[in-house]
Each structure stands twice: as structure tokens, then as C-alpha cells.
Amino acid sequence: MDRIMKLRNISRRGRGERAREPSLSRSEAFDVLSNQRRRFVLHILKQRENSVYLREIAEQVAAWESGKQVEAVTATERNRVQTALLQFHLPRMEDIDVVEYDPRRKRVGLAERGRDVDIYLSVVQKDDIPWGPVYLWVTGITVGVLLTSSVGIPPGTFVPYDVWLVMFVLAIGLVSTVHTYQNYFQMRLGTTERPPELEREHTEERDRLT
């Protein structure tokens, strides 16, 4: 217990020192999101407007980890998760001002800097679509076709230059829309019933069975 309180005291000093740094750095965000339990905690907190009892968080995390309903989680499973959160994860998240823990009320809330975490979620998640190469291919094809159209050689001569230009603008717009939807609606913590990684696993399992 002394060790836990010591970490909390350090975190409060750290928050004062970081008062002029409203956003998480890439390394801080990666550190928080690299652990599944911390991602689960953030997902729960982002779903709620108010703080949440630690016991409730531990039960839900244990349920997600074991693939059970919350009602089926045993006291042993809940206590194992709760102990890990208290001794390691919550102090670590407090240290960079992502969450706030009230030991008297045993409630956990999202700190101001915690709102920045979803921006970095794609850093530690694997995208189904390799967006970098997609943008590169679309851009390369666009430049190539427009150049051939401007000098009057195939395939640029198949349709007028202006038509090619409109087609590629629409293509880039479509790719950007799909990418934005995936990042900001499917991969954001707190926007789906379960964490994004569990939703993805469920979708993949459903696709295998159909």
C-alpha cells in the first residue's frame, strides 16, 4: 500500500509539472495503449460522463479478458484484475495525467489529458487496410495518368483530361472517407459497446462462421 501511495504522490507532482503540456506525447500514448488492460480501462471511462467504481471496472475488464458476461465473473477473477489495476496500471496512468483515482470513494475518472489518447489508437492497432500504400498507389496512378493525358499518349487519351481529374479527386475523397471512418468511429475508444479490438475479433469470428 505504501508503494501505491508513493506512486500517486509522484503523479500529482507530475501533473503540476505538465500543466503546460495539454496533449500526450507519442511515447506516452504508446505506453498507455500498449497494454490491453489500460486500453480496456480507457474504453470504459470514455463511455461514461462520470467516474466509475473501481470494482465495476475490474469486473468488466475481467469479463472481456475471459470472454464472459459480467455476471459470470468470479470474485477471484475480479480481485486479480483489481489488484493489478491498483498496484500497476492506475498509478502509471495517473503519472501522465490520463486518469484520476479517488482512493476514499474507490472511483476512477478520466483526466483531461486522457481525452487525447484516441488520437493515437491507430499507432498500436493493426489496420486491416495498409493505408500508406493505398494513398501512394492512388497518388502515383493519378500523376501518371494525368501526365500521359497532358502529352497525348495512352492511357491518358482514353477520356478527356478534366474527366480524369474529377475521377481521381473522387477516388482520393472516397479513400479518405473510408480511412477517417475506420480511425474515428471504429477504432476510437469509448465509441463502441466493446473495445475496438474485441469488436474486430467478433467480426472476424462471425465472418469465419458465415
Description:
This is DUF7344 domain-containing protein. Pfam families: DUF7344. The protein is mainly alpha-helical. It has two domains: 2-119, no CATH class; 126-186. Helix content is 64%, strand content 5%. The protein contains nine helices and three strands, in the order αααβααββαααα. It has a three-stranded antiparallel beta sheet. Helix 7 (131-151) runs antiparallel to helix 8. The termini are far apart. Residues 1-20 have low confidence and may be disordered.
Describe what is shown at a glance.
Helices cover 64% and strands 5% of the residues. The protein has helices spanning 2-17, 26-33, 36-47, 54-66, 75-95, 121-124, 131-151, 161-186, 196-209, and strands at 52-53, 99-102, 107-110.
